[in-house]
């Protein structure tokens, strides 16, 4: 009898019909089947975070009723930079998804015929600077991944901007990063329910891009070696937390409260007043002109101020990792800008900009115009050098399966604006297989298969090579390792499964990081105590990807370089 129970626990045989019913903690879900994939959309995993539950940790939703799971749920309320709605729609070739404060829904895609052992699972965390983004974006549809790679694919919403990261003194220090708590609850839901869809809860890989990748980095470093994570591997695309300065700033929320007519002293009465303000009124305010950005803070629970040091000292989820960035990650953030290079450096480093004179920066990127230098520096400061630091830290901590890449594919139909190159997020239609089939070239189709297969190989076996001849990453000394291990993807038009990567020494892309690392990888002299709430400053790109970093603390090290 015991053997029978074991067999039944690891084997599921289910033929999906048009009326697909699955029992979960969220109720009996009625999904749909199409093109070899069963999908379940708009699954409520938390009670609506509205009214008195606004600015509260998510409460798990439990039901035994039948729920229609055939339509995507609404987005959480978005904060789109003032005057940028049209640009966002043009960049992502999509119109806005309906928004609602009641938004904590998730989606599951699974192979339609489940037979044999439980299958690996990918859980996707979208980007958007922790101020916007949605699992209902058609670009994140999991059909292609599930059908072509025989894995389950999960996406979910989490609260962003002032709804998810208020940074308010009206709340306790440990109850401000609600968006991260939403993410944790979604991961817990997967652990409790994914077997019902044919997924193996012990073979979950979390994957994110931009602020979603940033969220993955936090999910890794908020754990330690004794706390088993709800995932066995992680994939990080162009988004990494490095050192965050522990400073305190409630000014944005205080200004918001005043604008909403809640003029009480910070505390329960003001919070009660703000919870009665309609969500649409709040959205109108946060999407108005001259409004700052609400984002996460260091609380010693969901976010720490020096994640690299936590990795180096073993205080992290010690899992295999695949990570990288795009060749032109910086272009979309500096597109058509008229600022000068000195002004750019001032934005990045404030009063410490004189430590990196413009001519030194130009020397890091020879042959480029100042505007091209700005885009390249933005890429390196915010993405490439962070990927390097994370890869190096993981290897130094003893993780054997670390795979690092740099993506370089450019396709004409993925160029919404001139001269963007391999712009931030442009790899996602290729990875997800959600490219426009009417305009995609044969090279796009083949690269999509190659890239998707490589990522799926990592999901299925994080300790194996994602693609032929792709070895684990070696940092080496000053970027020169015994063997070339940094995978450059599709830089030369190579898209086939057996040759879409070229291996190079890390120094081939990382040389400018010799300078930038001294700003990114600093050691704060004082850390936030367990009950304190801390917040960092931000630069231009941080407003999009949810990063907050300060160069303070690295100054002596940089000055020592002369």
Automatic annotation (TrEMBL):
Tell me if Calcium is a UniProt keyword of this record. Answer: no
Domain of life of the source: Eukaryota
Question: Where does the Carboxylesterase type B domain lie?
Answer: 20-336, 376-485
Quote the Gene3D superfamilies the UniProt record gives. alpha/beta hydrolase
The molecular function terms of the Gene Ontology recorded here are: carboxylic ester hydrolase activity
Q: What is its EC number?
A: 3.1.1.-
Give the keywords, sorted. Answer: Hydrolase, Signal
Q: Does the keyword Hydrolase apply?
A: yes
What InterPro entries does this protein map onto?
AB_hydrolase_fold, AChE-related_enzymes, CarbesteraseB, Carboxylesterase_B_AS, Carboxylesterase_B_CS
Residue ranges of the region described as Disordered: 542-562
Indicate the enzyme's highest-level EC class: hydrolase
The record's section on Pfam families has: COesterase
Which portions of the chain have biased composition (kind: Polar residues)?
Answer: 542-553
Q: Secretion signal: which residues? A: 1-17
Concerning PROSITE patterns, the annotation shows: CARBOXYLESTERASE_B_1 (PS00122), CARBOXYLESTERASE_B_2 (PS00941)
Family classification:
Belongs to the type-B carboxylesterase/lipase family.
The protein depicted here goes by the name Carboxylic ester hydrolase
Which species is listed as the source? Russula ochroleuca
């Amino acid at each position: 009898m015991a053997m029978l129970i074991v067999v039944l626990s690891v084997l599921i045989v289910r033929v999906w019909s048009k009326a697909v019913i699955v029992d979960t903690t969220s109720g009996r879900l009625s999904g749909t089947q199409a093109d070899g994939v069963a999908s379940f959309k708009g699954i409520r995993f938390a009670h609506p975070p509205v009214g008195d539950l606004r600015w509260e940790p998510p409460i798990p939703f439990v039901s035994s009723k039948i729920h229609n799971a055939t339509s995507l749920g609404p987005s959480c309320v978005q904060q789109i930079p003032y005057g940028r709605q049209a640009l966002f729609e043009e960049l992502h070739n999509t119109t806005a998804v309906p928004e609602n404060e009641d938004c904590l829904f998730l989606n599951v895609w699974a192979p339609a015929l489940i037979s044999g052992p439980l299958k690996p699972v990918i859980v996707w965390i979208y980007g958007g600077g922790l101020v916007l983004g949605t699992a209902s974006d058609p670009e994140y549809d999991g059909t292609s991944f599930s059908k072509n790679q025989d894995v389950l694919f999960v996406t979910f919403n989490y609260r962003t901007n002032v709804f998810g990261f208020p940074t308010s003194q009206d709340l306790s220090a440990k109850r401000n990063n609600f968006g991260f708590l939403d993410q944790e609850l979604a991961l817990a839901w997967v652990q409790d329910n994914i077997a019902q869809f044919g997924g193996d809860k012990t073979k979950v890989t979390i994957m994110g891009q931009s602020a979603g990748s940033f969220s993955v980095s936090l999910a890794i470093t908020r754990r330690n070696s004794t706390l088993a994570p709800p995932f066995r591997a992680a994939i990080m695309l162009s988004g990494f937390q490095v050192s965050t300065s522990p400073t305190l700033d409630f000014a944005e929320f205080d200004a918001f409260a005043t604008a909403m007519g809640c003029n009480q002293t910070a505390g329960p009465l003001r919070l009660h007043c703000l919870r009665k303000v309609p969500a649409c009124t709040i959205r109108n305010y946060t999407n108005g002109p001259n409004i700052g950005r609400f984002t996460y803070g260091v609380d010693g629970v969901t976010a720490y101020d020096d994640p690299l040091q936590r990795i180096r000292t073993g205080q992290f989820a010690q899992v295999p990792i695949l990570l990288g960035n795009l060749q032109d990650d910086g272009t979309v953030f500096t597109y058509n800008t008229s600022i000068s290079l000195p002004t750019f450096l001032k934005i990045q480093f404030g009063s410490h900009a004189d430590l990196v004179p413009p001519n030194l920066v130009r020397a890091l990127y020879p042959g480029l115009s100042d505007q091209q230098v700005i885009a390249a520096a933005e890429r390196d400061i915010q993405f490439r050098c962070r990927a390097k630091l994370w890869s190096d830290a993981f290897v130094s901590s003893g993780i054997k399966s670390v795979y690092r890449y740099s993506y370089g594919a450019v396709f004409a139909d993925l160029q919404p604006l001139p001269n963007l190159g391999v712009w931030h997020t442009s790899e996602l239609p290729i990875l997800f297989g959600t490219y426009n089939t009417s305009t995609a070239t044969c090279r796009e189709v083949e690269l999509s298969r190659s890239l998707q297969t490589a990522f799926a190989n990592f999901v299925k076996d994080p300790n194996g090579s994602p693609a032929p001849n792709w070895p684990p990453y070696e940092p080496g000394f000053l970027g020169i390792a015994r063997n070339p291990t940094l995978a450059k993807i599709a830089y030369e038009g190579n898209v086939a499964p057996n040759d879409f990567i070229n291996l190079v020494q890390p120094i081939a892309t990382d040389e400018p990081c010799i300078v930038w690392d001294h700003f990114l990888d600093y050691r704060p002299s004082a850390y936030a105590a367990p009950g304190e709430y801390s917040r960092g400053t931000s630069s231009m790109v941080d407003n999009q990807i949810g990063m907050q970093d300060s160069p303070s603390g690295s100054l002596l090290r940089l000055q020592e370089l002369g």
